[in-house]
Amino acid sequence: MRTASLVIATVAAVIAAAGGGFMSGRGVLRTADAPRIAVVSQAIAQTSSEPIYYQDPDGKPFYSLTPKKTPDGRDYRGVPAGADISFEEASAPETMPTAPMDRKIKYYRNPMGLPDTSLTPKKDSMGMNYIPVYEGEDSDDRSVKLSPGKIQRTGVKSEPAALRVIRTLIKAPGTIQLDERRISVISMRAESWVQKVANVTTGAKVNKGQPLMEIYSPAVATASAEYIATINSKTTGGDGFYGRGSRQRLMNLDVPDAAIVAMEKSRTVPIAIEWSAPRDGIVLERNAIEGMRAQPGDVLFRVADTSVVWAMIDVAERDLGMLAVGQAVIVKARSFPNREFAGKISVIYPQVNRETRTARVRIELSNSDGALLPDMYVDAGINTGSSEPVLTILESAVLDTGAKQAVFIDKGQGRFEPRDVMLGHRGDGYVEVRKGITEGEPVVVSANFLIDAESNLKAALKGFSEAGTQP
User: Fold this and answer.
1) At what angle do helices 240-252 and 218-235 cross, to 10 degrees?
2) DSSP 272-314
3) What are the residue boundaries of the CusB-like beta-barrel domain, all occurrences included (predicted)?
4) Which residue, 12, 194, 223, 423, has fewest beta-carbon neighbours within 10 Å?
5) Are residues 380 and 315 in the same domain?
């Protein structure tokens, strides 16, 4: 036990001297301190076989000098003194690195990543050895090779490109508007007086044929008297063609058919004509007042059928290419957050708003219960994309420079190849690849920016090395 305690104290002293330390149970070890820790580990291996420290059971970089448990209750793994502690990039400080017998060193690069190379072994200003670059590692196929330790530390992960169905949801705000084909206006075509108004107010629901008001019009009364006289003369041998002209005159004055039929049955001229609702709907406007004088064209009633309404939504300019007439749309009203209204795109208006860079899209919605009201705010969701599966990769795999897009292909044995790609639709965290890769190729989806940095460093070093060999 005394030996183990001494060993633990020695390890702690080495780690503290390395500038790391155990804080909150997590150790931070630097690569530059690997030789000293490796020497201590060899000494420990010769003195004791008891655990000298404890490590996370999943191999994560979490350490403790005393027994400890993970947040889910599992014990930390004890690391005995005889365990092999090795650091991949560590090298003995006393000797320069030597090349394997079967490979030839092409040049040496700066260990800190600086654009400095050497054709012979050397040290930098801090005493660190330059890293050898072998002929097999410095290939001309644009690929990047990383050591297994670096791949594990940076968290590089790959996922094969696969066929998937991509559904892109376009969300856009809008408002409810009346169907302009379902609005009726009641006005007079000749000078008239309102004799009586029914008990109907703005906002009231009316049915087709329901009486709204009684109108007296001299022009209508004259045409009615002429028509009745013609009918009576027809029964006594008059000209029937003249009677048809009189009836047409009443129709031209917009007299309701029900009023004309009532005249034909009673053979009398009414003093006032009853005007009725032309359709089922809601009274949007009521300007008729009992006893008022109405000039031709004055709007006395306006009735709208709200059983079908329009959702007018504003779609961003960038999304217009994915829309088509007939696409299904789900509309949610802010007044009814738990209710969905299904509809279809009926019109895509051929104009873009220059200020908002949006285009208006019209969606027809069934509104049989009248829940959707004019000018009500709604949010529309439009599912776009093909129902056929396409080749896809995770969006995180794409390196987008603006001018082009690229991914890294995992070639195995720590080698990664950059590949330019042509992308398509996006959705559900995936992006369609139309050109550049094939199905099943493993694509780097995590830590690819680190590989990209390594690739840029390799290109810079290669440029400096080539420049250094020029006479």
Assistant:
1) 160
2) SEEEE-SSSEEEEEE---TT-EE-TT-EEEEEE--SEEEEEEE
3) 309-383
4) 12
5) yes
Same domain, 265 and 245: yes
Task: Decide if 100 is inside a domain.
Answer: no
Q: For residue 423, which of 156, 166, 157 has the smallest C-alpha distance?
A: 166
Query: At which residue do the structure tokens 């995770």 appear?
Result: 394
175 and 321 housed in the same domain: yes
**End-to-end C-alpha distance for the chain, whole angstroms:** 65
Q: Which residues contact 270 (CB under 8 A, 6 or more apart)?
A: 224, 259, 262, 263
- Residue 158, pLDDT above cutoff 70: yes
The yes-or-no verdict on residue 22 having pLDDT over 50 is no
Q: Is 356 left (phi over 0), alpha (psi -120 to 50) or beta?
A: alpha
Residue 416 has pLDDT above 50, yes or no: yes
Domain boundary residue, one of 297, 322, 343: 297
Q: What is the pLDDT of residues 250-272, one digit of tens each?
A: 999 989 888 899 898 988 888 89
pLDDT of residue 295: 94
At CA 344, angle to CA 340 and CA 345, rounded to 5?
A: 125
Same domain, 24 and 121: no
Residue 411 pLDDT class (50, 70, 90 cuts): confident
Q: Is residue 184 part of a domain?
A: no
Is residue 310 within 8 Å of residue 365, measured between CB atoms?
yes
Q: What is the pLDDT of residue 47?
A: 47
87 belongs to a structural domain: no
**Three-state DSSP state, 320:** helix
Q: Does one domain contain both 356 and 315?
A: yes
198 and 288 co-located in one domain: yes
CB atoms within 10 A of CB 206: 20
Residue 458 confidence (pLDDT): 58
pTM: 0.56
Let me know whether 206 and 285 are in one domain: yes
Band of the pLDDT at 117, cuts 50, 70, 90? Answer: confident
- Same domain, yes or no: 53 and 199: no
Give me the residues paired with residue 144 across strands. 416
* Whether 462 contacts 144, CB under 8 Å: no
pLDDT, greater one: 196 or 155: 196
Q: Which two tokens stand for residue 9?
A: 């104290």
Q: Which domain holds residue 66?
A: 2-80
